[in-house]
Amino acid sequence: MSINEAFSHKCIILDACCIINLFASGQMKAILEAIPKNLAVAAYVKEHEAKVIYEDNKPVQIDLHPFITARLLRLVDIESDVEANLYVNFSQVLDDGEAITGAIALNRNWAVATDDAKSMKFFQRSTSRIALVSTLDLVKYWADTKKPSKSTVQETLLQLRLRGTYEPHRTHPLKGWWQQYQ
Question: Residue 133: how many CB atoms within 10 A of its CB?
Fold first, then answer.
């Protein structure tokens, strides 16, 4: 995973877990604004998978409309037989949202932002053409480039953990960076 590798692509398509985590962080707008690439989400992911986060055990609806309206996030769908066939093949192993996201990314030569370990392993094993980044890569890029206060970064990571139930895997390359804010 490399943010620079992802930035070599025209667009980064975010899967459901990444959308959920960014929304949960409370800084989604600022993070999306910091990324110097086009960002997209599959319509299926928006409609069926990235629906809610939980705050104090109560569901909070994820509303992507403001990000789409502000052109920070583009809504995309399968547009060709090639993408449809890739989706069918990928869906033999992955959930629908990850399969659609991967099919679009592979066909259009886009990068994928995901935190799903199964998807990352599948894409790394089956195709080297999909650059992968995680939510934490995007959050760190925002923190490094926009220089929010330490307390803002701490609160963002806390919200990511509490509302997004995100915790980087012990082998995640940015686990040490995460820990310095705990």
Answer: 25
